[in-house]
Design brief:
The protein has 107 residues and is of the alpha+beta class. It has helices at residues 32-48, 76-87; strands at residues 5-6, 9-10, 19-27, 51-57, 61-68, 92-97, 101-102.
């Protein structure tokens, strides 16, 4: 049996996919408070689109995986808009947005 635990049940291979993407950037010489502010602002932007994230930030880098909140969906428009939003943040450089991938990674 291949799959992952999901709400008490094992998800079978091919049953469904939850698509998400990686979003990352390098931060310009910031302290912990500034890095946390960038992460909090990103979280607010995601929530306004019905999205959530996992991952985190340190003083030189932000790396998160973005996926839809329950009963929501993420679109290519969201993916590109979030990359643009991050690129417009004064402390962020080298913004990277990844391709769509299955959040559960079951192949």
């Amino acid at each position: 049996m291949s799959g992952m635990e999901d709400g008490g049940g094992v998800r079978e291979k091919g049953e469904f996919a939850v698509l998400g993407f990686v979003l990352s950037c390098r931060l310009q010489e910031v302290g912990t408070e500034d890095a946390t502010r960038v992460l909090d602002a990103l979280e607010a932007e995601l929530e306004s689109r019905g999205l959530i994230m996992g991952g985190g930030v340190d003083t030189d880098r932000l790396d998160v995986f973005v996926l839809p909140h329950k009963n929501a969906s993420a679109t290519d428009k969201d993916r590109l808009a979030l990359a643009e939003w991050l690129d417009q943040q004064p402390l962020c450089t080298e913004v990277v947005v990844g391709d769509w991938m299955d959040a559960y990674g079951v192949e």
